[in-house]
Amino acid sequence: MYKFNYQRPNSVEDALALYKTSDDPKFVAGGMTLLPTMKLRLAQPSDLIDLSCVADLSGITETDDTITIGAGVLHADVAASKEVDRRIPALSNLAESIGDPQVRNRGTIGGSIANNDPAADYPAGVLGLNATVVTDRREIMADDFFTDMFETALLPDEVVVSVRFPVPKRAAYVKFPNPASRYAIVGVMVAECDSGIRVAVTGAGPCVYRFTEMEEALNKEFSPQVTGEIACEPDGLNEDIHASAEYRAHLVGVMVRRAVAAAN
Fold it and tell me: What domain range is 16 assigned to?
């Protein structure tokens, strides 16, 4: 590790003020992505601005048709939330599937989506459930938020405050996890929203994406049998020591079929 300044503000306003007066700052929440990146010297910020003590980023609230989760809420708290489990059990199951207890008790939803790791679970949840990302200055629809590998629509000094999830008619998240890290080799969120069926895929490609051909088929008939008629092409999918692009393409179809069966 190398020398850096550690800042721990108590409000979003203070965090933004610290960001503006630092040379090369980075916001950090749970640190599940940033700290390993720093350890490998792939990032060398002058200042770490820790958001874990910002009260405005905590809490889970519900309305008649939404669940809003503060950006600083831990994965473990989402998994244990009675409100989330009652209204969007697929999201509760997704949170429970992340990493191990140590990761779930440190990592946050805001940090996960802001880093947009291509194998992270929450991007599929946000995109598949058609959520809205609320920042300190605007609201960003899920379809516009995730832009590329480790990239989002966030500005460098923009802070995620909360994520607002519409309550779906039905939904399920299923993944094929890496046995060591529990990251998704392929993960799929299938949800029936007011606008129709949404299918979001993580782990397979450089960035979470919607499987639109599968959505069209499922909008006509929501059944596992339909999914077998739509093939996922391997072109452009991730390929590494864990799985080939062809294997990931096959897994996409399998995970979609399982998610549809679980959502019925």
Answer: 1-55
